[in-house]
Amino acid sequence: MSNTETHPTESVCGADVDGPPPPGIEILTPRDVPLGGPRAMRVRRTLPQRARTLIGAWCFADHYGPDDVAESGGMNVPPHPHTGLQTVSWLFSGEIEHRDSLGSHAFVRPGELNLMTGGYGISHSEVSTPATRVLHGAQLWVALPEEHRHTARDFQHHVPAPVALDGGEARVFLGTLVGDTSPVRTFTPLLGAEIVLEPGAAVTLDVDPGFEHGVLVDSGDVLLAGTALKPAELGYAPPGHASLTLANAGEEPARLLLLGGPPFQEEIVMWWNFIGRSHDDIVQAREDWTTGTRFGEVHGYDGASLPAPELPNAPLKPRRRMR
User: Fold this and answer.
1) Which pLDDT score is estimated for 21?
2) What is the dihedral of CA 241, 242, 244, 245, to 10 degrees?
3) To the nearest 10°, the Cα dihedral for 30, 33, 172, 154?
4) Helix H or strand E encompassing 243
5) How far is Cα of residue 294 from the mean position of the Cα atoms in its chain?
């Protein structure tokens, strides 16, 4: 997915909706962004933002839908480049056709993980299929650490089995949670899981206290450690939590994505679809995309590639992580 901005043991317990958030819990609100151009479908972006750039190595989070494709036109993102990151595609409904310069031709379907490693450079396209009536999902990026940010292109697919909770279920697509471990390879420790809670249910999940966590709400009245979160908001919990309590205070099922990882200690420069460590890294990546080198070709997409936007006049500076 292309970033069009240029300037990621269960037990039941009760929770109080009223009152201020407990110490350490932050609420990140989304902003609307056009995907792939000003006339394209719009997404709700919660990472990055001024209040917080990263949660672990998660550096980008887009949440979209449910969109009636007959009205929105669906997703049609032309071939575009990535470097220094991994993309994580997760759908709740619909189907997206993926093609990349590694030669991968795959489909993103609900409950199935597609993870693409950009590393030194990759390009890909994303198009919702004709059979899609409602498109609904999330696109996430993971920053690669310095040691691996020039790694080779890669593509992985995984279908996590649902794990029953007391009052819901989880699908662990990255890392380990509720006794289930994803086999998908990452370059820093990560957690990624979809959790569905029944009305009135609450679960307390054992988590790594060295991780910081984010809860991206898709639907329902979700509480994170007693803090109410609205759909499309992202709740942040700092390191130090050995468990997290998630509750559904509503009368309909609630769905959320739980993300986590140890604080990412490196400063990154993030512009368009590139992650580097300096302004010069970004300039070189843009030039390589414009001149047709480094990122390879996407075969099978009917149309031209996405042009890179103009660089800002001022030098790009690293995004400093929040403490």
Assistant:
1) 47
2) -120
3) -150
4) strand 243-248
5) 25
Neighbours of 226 (CB within 10 A): 17
Q: Which residue from 62, 59, 261, 246 is spatially nearest to 175, judged by alpha carbons?
A: 261
CA 237 to chain centre: 17
> In 3-state terms, what secondary structure has residue 113?
strand
Cα 196 off chain centre by: 18
In sequence order, the 6+-apart residues with CB closer than 8 A to the CB of 76 are 36, 40, 126, 127, 128
> Which 3 state secondary structure label does DSSP give 82?
strand
**Distance of CA 264 to CAs 130, 140, 203, 267, Å?**
39, 16, 27, 8
> Which pLDDT belongs to residue 140?
98
As given in the structure block, the two tokens for residue 215 are 């809860």
Residue holding tokens 């292109």? 153
- CA 318 to centroid of chain Cα atoms: 20
In the DSSP assignment, the letter for residue 148 is G
Q: Which residues in 67-79 are b (16+ Cβ under 10 Å) and which e?
A: bebeebebbbbbb
Distance in angstroms (rounded) separating the CA atoms of residues 33 and 139: 13
Bond prior to 199 in cis (omega within 30° of 0): no
pLDDT tens-place string over residues 138-147:
999 999 999 9
DSSP characters for 160-218?
Answer: PPPEEETTEEEEEEESEETTEE-----SS--EEEEEEE-TT-EEEEE--TT-EEEEEEE
Burial 47-60 (b: 16+ CB within 10 A, else e): bbeeebbbbbbbbb
What pTM was estimated for this model as a whole? 0.91
Polymer length of the chain: 323
Element (H, E) at 285: helix 279-291
Q: What is the distance, to the nearest Å, from the Cα of residue 11 to the centroid of all Cα atoms in its chain?
A: 28
Token pair for 292: 């047709």
